Amino acid sequence: MTAELTRGQNHPLPRARLEIRISAGTPIVAGATLGDENGRVHGVEWVAHPGTPALPGLEVSRQAAADHRLAVDLDAVPDAVHRVSVLLALPAGGQGPGRFGAVAAPFVAVTGLDGDEVASYTITGLEAESAVVALELYRRQGAWKVRAVGQGYTGGLTELLTDQSLPQAHELARGIHEAVAGGLARSVPAPPARTADGNRSRQAATPAHGTDHGAAASQGTPGTVPPVSPYDAPGVSDPQTPGAHAQHGTQQPYPAGPGDSATAGPSSAPTGGGPIDYSHPRRQDAAPPPPPPAAPPAAPGQPARPVAGDATGWSMEERLYNQVWGMFEDLARTTAAYRSAVDFADSRMEKELDQVLSDPRSRIGGQGDAAREAARTRHTQLVSQAREALDRDIAQLAAEADVVEPALPAAYARWDSPVWHAYRVPMEIPMALRLGDLHLPEADRIRIPLLVRLPLERGLWIDSGRSASLDGSFADSHEMRSLGLETAVAHAARLLAAYPAGEFTVHVIDPAGSGAQALAPLVQTGVLAAPPALGAAGTADVLARLTQRVDLVQMALRGGAPDALPPGLDTSQQLLIVNDFPHGFDDRAVNQLRYLADEGPAVGVHLMMVADREDSAGYGPLLDPLWRSLLRLTPVADDHLADPWVGHAWTYEPALVPPGSQVLRQVLTQVAAARRPWDR
Amino acid sequence: MTVNMTKGQAISLQKSDGGSLTSVRMGLGWQAAPRRGLFGSRTREIDLDASAVLFADKQPVDVVFFRHLVSDDGSVRHTGDNLVGGVGQGGDDEAILVDLQRVPVHIDQIVFTVNSFTGQTFQEVQNAFCRLVDETNGQELARYTLAGGGAYTAQIMAKVHRAGQGWAMTAIGSPANGRTFQDLMPAILPVL
């Protein structure tokens, strides 16, 4: 049974213990004044406000909020009090709205403690007022009643309190606003400072930060935490550190005042605007990431010197991964800017020269020559400007590459990097693996590592076909084949080295036995599960075993019973290297291969094909989906990879072991040694 | 200090200390106008989209909008599509960041447009504004409020163009009709 009151209307109150709920679309201050039978407020001790939230029989919130609950016990109110006025005011001094006309109409409801509504009132028709008396609870012949008042005051709290004959109205109004400002500063955390790589382009949608609202709350009121860089002090005690969310549980954002939570009950619950703590109160296992290296201060007028690992991430490995991808994107975009400027300059010059040609006047005298010359000058000028911008960016990226490359861990590093000599079999898989280098003709100096995430999401296809290699040296098909297998071995060795002992198994199908020489490092160090399979029979056998594995694991996963797998099943990731495809393959084997390519990656079975697509042309379009599902790599430098942002053709160079280097064998020997205890 | 711009007004984007701006954000905010009459509480969603078209010598070269969030050169970035607007209470609902230093040398004008993707006219939009903020310190440089929403579905808000060594901004505020920026091309060309 709710009475919806209109202005001036009154309603009897059935009980003495009540709650007054207030909701407004924006943080507002709520308070109450006690008046005698003439409506006079005798002094500041008769006003409940955020500075003095509790009076006998009355309790208001300590801060401005969009929703309030005031607790009222009319039996506990002193006998001299005949009138309780509930007042609302907009916080002063902030950048929030300064008048009620600019916010949604406040809604006030009187409810019992069990929540059932007695009377409600929506305060409409407010314009320039910044304070309003919403309701009045008053004694009438010994019983309490409520009246909807809705009296607004343009002069704010001061005028409102003066109107209630409070002598110290001015001081009190100021005190209330100060208390509110303090509460506001306490309840809203300072926005995190911009991260160090803020100038890096990111595709992801970031929220538009720095809105009026957030800025208003963070302006340096005494007692706020100054905005700290997330990298300055990532200590455990600092609640502002992003990533240290788990630590929030120990820090109470609301300092509990004396008697606050004890008497106020629901009114002390965090209301709108405060931070919400989602962390488990006692669980603290998410340790904050170690701090990234700090960038040395840049010399004035110079761009900051690059530092390896200054991107975001939870570990150095992730930071380097993000940094490499950031460099990749920056180089792609910088080059796009240069190319589009040059294209534009070319087309403009062409247009201008055409105009000169078609203008009959230009055939006489030197006018035409002058116009042609001017067009060429404009072209040269624009191109040189563009080149200047490109050179500036390339210099910066080259400096970054120079510090990043030596800092890369083994899985990201080139084979000639010293970290491979200090190789140890890892305990867990790295985030990503380097498959080679990428570069653009405009920036030949900068090699971007091509990092792919582990575990692999798609198989690899080492194209041993005749590609028109960039340097014009035309490798014959036999040479390409052996180069292809060599590349495959280097990739496979890297994968083996990246996984912990026994978690990665490599099978090889080499039907004609033609790859014996290139496969020697894998065979001789004993890292293969079995010797390379020869002939049609061997091919069929390996394919059958892997197909069965895919079937079993798939069934177990679909049935939700991974425990039901047969005990002898090898649960490690599997890589199948197929040399000389389709030699030795019959239709059945080809179908099995396609099945592995489609279904394998989801259950940890990957393909690495060393093949020339033309050789399998006899199968027709049947195999097209197979090629498309694999990541095509080449054994020689070739510009066939496109970046995801602009779509430049990047020149890919495989990560190969330098000629004569023993590092591959050393690494594989360690891998084999670490696997032995598992292989019993 | 914010300059409240009027239609056609141009301001130079020099900092007060004489240095030139390096990075600016064009913010767009709006709210759905309250509906009168029955079922007034039922909210309708208005999806306004901010786009930026990059011009070189009056030829469109690149565009940044909700399907192409970053210009190819990386200098102009859209922070993402907002489908409803109005929740920020005066904050930006969509924003486009322009790294003025990295804008390719041949780009001489960047035109900012607003389209009503859901088809409502600007009569049903209230408190729409676009503002230019110095991204390095968060200061608002200029604000242009859409006055008098009329029966059109798009507006060419403003352009940022090269002026001498630096950049300047001109408030345009000319109405047009269209769902995305492509429909606006004929309307944009006269204001270049």
TrEMBL record, chain B:
Domain (TerD) ranges: 1-179
InterPro entries per UniProt: Stress/Tellurium_Resist (IPR051324), TerD (IPR003325)
Transmembrane segments: none
A Pfam family that the UniProt record links to this protein: TerD
Organism domain of life: Bacteria
Name of the protein in question: TerD family protein
Naturally occurring in which organism (per UniProt): Streptomyces thinghirensis
Upper lineage: Bacteria, Bacillati, Actinomycetota, Actinomycetes, Kitasatosporales
